[in-house]
């Protein structure tokens, strides 16, 4: 910020030294280190004598405590904070301190033992280099390296010169510069530059002045300041600068006083504080001075509270410097003091867009400031003024209702809750939330009690507790109610023990709420306090603060105490009184009075842990520009730069840059001006770490992940015992609502770099959730803040909606109203009873249970985010998860006999099945709608016909069970036995005869039909039984033998039967076969001879078919299979011969008929012929006539 108008710019007075708490043990020439948890350790050395004493400073409680003693006495030792958070001590012995276990452990000895007045330099690799020093018999030039990961020592070459009481500093390049010291009793000017990467020492340069007991300080630009020291017992004021770029030295401005045994500390703004030391042996320098590298000059920094030399001066995470121990003053070795380098200033920014006084201003995530109420008239209260930090511009935002004298609470979801207040002079219960991302405001549930000038406190679980205030008629009330943003409801809580308005309410570290002061129902100021326990919903009255007041400010300090300052007494007069409440006692104590009485001022807890009070009024009217800062560690108020404008009832908001935005208010008139107030947190930009993002989790996780730059700056080390920054970041988390803050250490078990930071687990486990500002502090230099949210588990979701099914259920739910400050990653749904769970990854709005046992269920859903699982929702509607029923079917008797009663029993399985059962036989109903009893239904029937029946049982299902059907049961019903007999009217019969087949069925009950079959061929079908018989007349039997059966099909009461097969013989029609010849019956052998056969048939026989064989009784076949033509067949043969051995003889010739399909075969009578031997025959002259086909005569 530049100052354009001198009248509108202010600068604070110079910083000063303030006495701190006393040490437990006296120390001088001790080793010192800033631990990664923000504590300070002093070890060994009392007045340069070896000692085992260890002191630990706890900044949160502002006290020194005895630490575990060293295993052996040490003097001139060094302490080095390691990357893993442990602390290495090197001296007469080698030890490592574990701050978590609070124990020392001896490590393997190095190559150089019994060492003192050496240097210890933490390298970029995390290893520690020990250089030079004094042994029992003089100086050493040894170099050795300690590896904390392997817990081993190794020699690492040596310097070119032995030296002790020298100084060392690591350059930005990673090289280590060693300068000065003492060798053989003489001061040295030699300089050596060690390159750890190559293990090489370059000793080509020298300082301009020989000096031991000097300090080396790495300046922001990379150069090195060598200051003071002594040469031959004479302290030096001279200083010189080393430029790594050229390797050369040049004189710098000399200090105002010669010093050796002093301490040099780099301040957040890049300047160097030099404190104490000796100007001559035994004479300590009381003054301190500051070197400004930019102007190469020294300015006085005032006198130390206690004159000291050989002390420690440790830059603290909040930017201040802690000085402890040393010699000089009689009390030096057991005392400590603080130096706060912050220099405040204020710069006018601009004219504001409206007129307001008594407005309420809060941070509006993601990067704005919200100002509401206190308007010049009621119309101003209908909109808010919004300041955009990134663009430095103002805009307006319409509200759902008018509010003034209300409360504004930044919820953990980033929205701002506006509750109650006055609208047109009337108390209202209305509430709304403002969304800084969408720049909109939406009404939410109203409070149960209209109220104004009440108090609102963001609770650790994300709810908001509203207490007291004034209602109609300006009467104070004691009521309290709780807003739950996740479900948008207000719930009454236990009322306070006394009605209060304009009181102060502060969330304590343990989650309780302290309420103090205010005015009662009669308008009288209260000298009382009480504390609320949210777990028990109970208020407990505390000891009275000792003063009645209202409209005071209350600020939670870093140590957990509460500073209550200013306010008004019963007469309406501003008060200068300040009190501190310690909840651990619990007790009140007086703090020093402020320089000015104040009311209607602003109070801001600075990241340094100090409290800044600005403006307000000190009299009956008007305003003041005055600013005071309270430092808890020294319990002291200090003046700071004035505001640019006098004002009261104004608003002040701490911005991420570390500046305060101060707006509005009233003095002699309205103050429509904004100003930036710098409380001294703007450090040297070259040394300022950068923080890009921060992710935080609470609710039992308590982790912090951050990314940025400059987390691991250039390292430094010296042997003076003055102490140095740890060169490791501490991340500070400061709650926006109540200012509660915590420093988070790096997790030694996770990777760490200059750009990545991982906090130790559980560091934030008990830190209240909600919007915070996160800063990285490195060697007392703060980064600009990043706005984040300490996330907790989401709010409970509303009761889900469940739908039942078969062995399954579907559960639908809506997102929670409050995600806990980080995105919901999924949902978990639990079934009751049984506890079955199903989950889904966001975005999702339902889950399905696919294999639930049957039963009645309700379901509870929980949202899940990175911080954990939310509390379960209210239970869903109850649903029935149906059983997948099944039916088993049994028959009382199977097979059964026709006419008997058969009982079918169907048993349904499932969830206590009710409903009905229907029994069917062959698809037709037997018994319908039979009610189940204990899951069982029965059907009795006598109506089943004989035979095989398909029986089924169908279950209707009910609310808890599905419908189902049994497997088919095959029921055999046996009928009355029957016997079938069969006779034929004529057997055998002749073809064409009429044959009557008669079946006789023998059984108890006659009825039904008979079928007659020729083998498988039906003859007569479904012939009704008459008197137990049935007949079938057949006239077309084919010739042959037929297997005739009678098949009785039975009926409803009689079983079927089949007769034995009847062999029905059907004969062919008779025929007559004759044979004749036209030839003479006496002839010579082997002459042609013709025969003719004739077949005569019955009338049904028709023209016979078939064939005729002509045979001789000699066995010869004369003609074979001569086909009939019109009933005759001819045969001409030359095969007729006399019987063998006879000259002549007779031959009998016969015709054999084969028969056909209806005519029987047969043989003719013999035809006898005489056959002559050719030798005995005298042929005639042939005058006789010849017959064709006949032999010659």
| CATH H-level superfamily of the largest domain | Kelch-type beta propeller
Low-confidence spans:
1-13, 715-721, 1179-1185
Number of helices: 0
Percent of residues in β-strands: over 45%
Overall structural domain count? 7
User: Which structural class do the helices and strands define?
Assistant: mainly beta
As for the CATH topology of the largest domain, it is Neuraminidase
Rg: 61 Å
Helix content: under 10%
Separation of termini?
171 Å
Mean pLDDT value: 89
CATH architecture of the largest domain, by name, is 6 Propeller
Give the overall shape.
elongated
Keywords: Kelch repeat, Repeat
Protein name: Kelch repeat-containing protein
Organism: Tahibacter soli
Domain Bacterial Ig-like: 893-974, 983-1066, 1082-1171
Describe the fold and architecture.
It comes from Tahibacter soli. Residues 893-974, 983-1066, 1082-1171 form the Bacterial Ig-like domain. The chain is mainly β and 1193 residues long. It has seven domains: 21-259, Kelch-type beta propeller (Neuraminidase, 6 Propeller), CATH 2.120.10.80; 351-495, Kelch-type beta propeller (Neuraminidase, 6 Propeller), CATH 2.120.10; 685-709 and 728-791, Immunoglobulin-like (Sandwich), CATH 2.60.40.10; 801-881, Sandwich (Immunoglobulin-like), CATH 2.60.40.10; 886-974, Immunoglobulins (Immunoglobulin-like), CATH 2.60.40.10; 978-1067, Immunoglobulins (Immunoglobulin-like), CATH 2.60.40; 1071-1176, Immunoglobulin-like, CATH 2.60.40. It is 0% helix and 46% strand. It is built from no helices and 112 strands. The strands form 28 sheets. Strands 69, 70, 72, 73, 74, 75, 76 and 77 form an eight-stranded mixed beta sheet that branches. Strands 87, 89, 90, 92, 93 and 94 form a six-stranded mixed beta sheet that branches. Strands 96, 98, 99, 101, 102 and 103 form a six-stranded mixed beta sheet that branches. Strand 30 (278-280) and strand 31 (283-284) form a beta hairpin. Mean pLDDT is 89; it is low at 1-13, 715-721 and 1179-1185.
């Amino acid at each position: 910020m530049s100052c354009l108008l001198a009248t509108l710019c202010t600068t604070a007075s110079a910083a000063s030294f303030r006495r701190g708490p006393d040490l437990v043990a006296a120390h001088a020439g001790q080793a010192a280190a800033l631990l990664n948890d923000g504590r300070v350790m002093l070890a060994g050395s009392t007045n340069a004598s070896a000692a085992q004493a260890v002191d630990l400073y706890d900044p949160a409680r502002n006290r020194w405590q005895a630490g575990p003693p060293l295993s052996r006495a040490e003097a001139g030792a060094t302490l080095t904070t390691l990357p893993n958070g442990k602390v290495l001590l090197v001296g007469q012995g080698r030890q490592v301190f574990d701050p978590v276990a609070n124990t020392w452990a001896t490590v393997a000895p190095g190559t150089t033992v019994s060492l003192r007045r050496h240097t210890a330099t933490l390298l970029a690799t995390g290893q520690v280099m020990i250089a030079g020093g004094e042994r029992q018999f003089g100086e050493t030039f040894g170099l050795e390296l300690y590896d904390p990961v392997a817990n081993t020592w190794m020699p690492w070459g040596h310097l070119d010169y032995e030296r002790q009481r020298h100084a060392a500093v690591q350059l930005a390049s990673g090289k280590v510069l060693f300068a000065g010291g003492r060798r053989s009793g003489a001061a040295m000017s030699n300089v050596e530059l060690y390159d750890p990467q190559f293990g090489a020492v370059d000793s080509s340069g020298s300082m301009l002045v020989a000096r031991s007991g000097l300090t080396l300080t790495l300046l922001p630009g990379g150069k090195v300041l060598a200051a003071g020291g002594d040469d031959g017992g004479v302290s030096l004021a001279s200083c010189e600068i080393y430029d790594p770029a050229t390797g050369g030295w040049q004189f710098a401005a000399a200090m105002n006083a010669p010093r050796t045994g002093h301490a040099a500390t780099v301040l957040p703004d890049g300047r160097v504080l030099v404190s104490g030391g000796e100007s001559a042996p035994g004479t300590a320098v009381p003054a301190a001075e500051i070197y400004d590298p930019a102007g190469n000059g020294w300015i006085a920094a005032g006198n130390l509270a206690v004159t000291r030399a050989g002390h420690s001066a440790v830059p603290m995470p909040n930017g201040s410097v802690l000085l402890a121990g040393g010699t000089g003053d009689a009390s030096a070795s057991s005392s400590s003091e603080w130096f706060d380098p912050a220099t405040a200033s204020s710069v006018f920014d601009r004219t504001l867009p409206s007129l307001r006084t008594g407005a309420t201003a809060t941070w509006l995530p993601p990067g704005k400031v919200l100002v509401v109420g206190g308007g010049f008239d009621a119309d101003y209260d209908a909109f808010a003024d919004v300041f955009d930090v990134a663009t430095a511009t103002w805009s307006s935002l319409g509200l759902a209702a008018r509010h003034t004298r209300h409360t504004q609470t930044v919820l953990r979801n980033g929205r701002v809750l506006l509750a109650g207040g006055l609208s047109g002079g009337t108390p209202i219960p209305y509430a709304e939330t403002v969304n800084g991302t969408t720049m909109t405001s939406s009404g939410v549930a109203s409070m149960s009690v209209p109220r104004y000038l009440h108090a609102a406190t963001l609770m650790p679980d994300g709810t908001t507790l509203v207490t007291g205030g004034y209602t109609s008629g300006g009467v104070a009330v004691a009521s309290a109610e709780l807003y739950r943003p996740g479900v948008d409801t207000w719930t009454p809580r236990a009322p306070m023990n006394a009605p209060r308005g304009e009181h102060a309410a502060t969330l304590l570290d343990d989650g309780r709420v302290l309420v103090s002061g205010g005015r009662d129902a009669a308008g009288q100021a209260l000298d009382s306090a009480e504390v609320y326990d949210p777990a028990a919903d109970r208020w407990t009255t505390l000891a009275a603060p000792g003063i009645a007041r209202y409209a005071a400010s209350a600020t939670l300090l870093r140590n957990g105490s509460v500073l209550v300052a200013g306010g008004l007494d019963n007469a309406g007069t501003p008060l200068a009184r300040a009190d501190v409440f310690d909840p651990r006692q619990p007790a009140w104590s007086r703090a020093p009075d402020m320089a000015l009485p104040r009311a209607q001022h602003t109070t801001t807890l600075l990241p340094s842990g100090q409290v800044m009070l600005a403006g307000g009024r000190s009299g009956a009217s008007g305003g003041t520009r005055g600013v005071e800062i309270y430092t808890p560690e020294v319990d002291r108020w200090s003046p700071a730069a004035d505001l640019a404008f006098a004002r009261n009832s104004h608003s002040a908001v701490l911005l991420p840059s570390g500046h305060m935005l101060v707006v509005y208010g009233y003095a002699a008139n309205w103050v429509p001006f904004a100003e930036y107030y710098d409380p001294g947190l703007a450090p040297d930009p070259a040394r300022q770490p950068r923080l890009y993002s921060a992710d935080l989790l609470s609710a039992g996780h308590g982790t912090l992940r951050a990314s940025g730059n400059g987390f691991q700056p250039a390292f430094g080390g010296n042997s003076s015992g003055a102490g140095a920054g740890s060169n490791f970041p501490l991340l500070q988390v400061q709650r926006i609502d109540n200012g509660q803050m915590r420093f988070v250490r790096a997790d030694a078990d996770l990777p760490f770099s200059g750009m990545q930071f991982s906090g130790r687990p559980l560091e934030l486990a008990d830190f209240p959730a909600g919007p915070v500002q996160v800063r990285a502090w490195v060697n007392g230099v703060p980064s600009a803040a990043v706005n984040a949210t300490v996330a907790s588990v989401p709010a409970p979701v509303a009761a889900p909606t469940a739908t039942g099914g078969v062995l399954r259920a579907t559960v639908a739910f809506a997102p929670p109203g409050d995600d806990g400050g980080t995105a919901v990653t999924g949902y978990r749904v639990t079934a009751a009873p049984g506890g079955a769970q199903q989950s889904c990854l966001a975005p999702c709005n339902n889950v399905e249970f696919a294999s639930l046992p049957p039963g009645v269920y309700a379901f509870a859903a929980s949202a899940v985010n990175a911080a954990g699982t939310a509390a379960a929702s209210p239970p869903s509607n109850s649903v029935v998860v149906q059983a997948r029923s099944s039916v088993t079917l049994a028959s009382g008797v199977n097979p059964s006999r026709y006419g008997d009663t058969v009982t079918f029993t169907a048993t349904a399985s499932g969830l206590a099945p009710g409903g009905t059962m229907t029994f069917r036989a062959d698809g037709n109903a037997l018994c319908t709608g039979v009610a189940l009893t204990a899951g069982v239904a029965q059907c009795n029937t006598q109506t089943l016909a004989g035979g095989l029946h398909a029986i089924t049982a169908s279950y209707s299902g009910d609310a808890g069970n599905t419908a189902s059907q049994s497997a088919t049961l095959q029921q055999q019903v046996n009928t009355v036995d029957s016997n079938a007999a069969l006779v034929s009217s004529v057997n055998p019969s002749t073809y064409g005869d009429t044959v009557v087949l008669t079946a006789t069925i023998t059984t108890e009950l006659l009825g039904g039909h008979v079928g007659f079959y020729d083998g498988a061929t039906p003859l007569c079908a479904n012939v009704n039984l008459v008197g137990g018989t049935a007949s079938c007349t057949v006239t077309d039997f084919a010739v042959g033998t037929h297997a005739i059966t009678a098949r009785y099909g039975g009926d409803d009461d009689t079983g079927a039967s089949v007769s034995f097969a009847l062999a029905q013989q059907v004969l062919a029609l008779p025929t007559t076969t004759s044979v004749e010849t036209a030839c003479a019956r006496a002839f010579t052998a082997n002459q042609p001879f013709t025969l003719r056969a004739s077949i005569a048939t019955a009338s049904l026989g028709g023209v016979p078919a078939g064939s005729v064989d002509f045979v001789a009784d000699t066995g010869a076949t004369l003609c074979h299979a001569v086909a009939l033509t019109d009933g005759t067949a001819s045969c001409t043969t030359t095969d007729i011969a006399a019987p063998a051995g006879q000259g002549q003889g007779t031959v009998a010739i016969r015709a054999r008929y084969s028969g056909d399909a209806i005519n029987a075969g047969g043989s003719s009578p013999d035809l006898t012929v005489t056959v002559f031997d050719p030798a005995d025959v005298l042929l005639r002259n042939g005058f006789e006539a010849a017959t064709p086909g006949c032999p010659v005569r």
